[in-house]
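BUG: 3D viewer hangs when loading the predicted structure for this chain

Environment: internal workstation, default settings.
Expected: structure renders.
Actual: progress bar stalls at 90%.

Input used:
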Amino acid sequence: MKKRTSTDSLRSLLSTGIIFFMFLYFGLFSNIRAQNYAVVKDIAGFKKLYDIKTTAINTLKSDFVQEKSISMMQNKIYSNGSFIIKKTNKLRLEYTNPFAYIFVMNNDQIVIKNDQGKSSASISSNKYVKMISQLTIDCITGNILNSNDFNVNISENVQAYYLVLIPDQKIIRSLFKEINILILKSDFTVDRIELKETSGDNTTLTFSNKKLNTTVSDEVFNIN
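Structure tokens produced before the viewer hung:
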């Protein structure tokens, strides 16, 4: 059996459907999107407030559901699982349905475990791996707002901020036409991500049962 490389697995994670979530709060999001958005005029003020709110978040746990629309298929594909983030560059993303798949980023190391076995890679040894890994965390945490790899348009209504990100970086632009992120004003966590891919496929990620600043052991990010 041919062993997949870490780069292949990461590309699959982000661009062929092994990416996060579609949610419990889909009805809530539908209501939010139905409301009119106004362009945020004070971008500097928003970024300052956003930095204050997100700096206070040290750990984040959440369940997820993922909805994948593939251009060549009529039916959508759904996956679900959970993830844990710890501020010191630690991420554990675990799919439980329809198959088991674990992606862990622990400082400079990435480990991927599925039914074919376990593979690992050093983030710093591969620019592509580093970029994709950082994009993964930045999307979930919302830090993508501060990235120089995107042109960002920000709008708002009474419940949420809506970010439209157009890739300005060559590798990202080859994968995605646009990334949309919904940030709730109640706790400044990312509630939904929409990835519009250059292939014509689309992935919708939504988070539910979010828990902020709970105790998370470093052992969670070690895979045997």
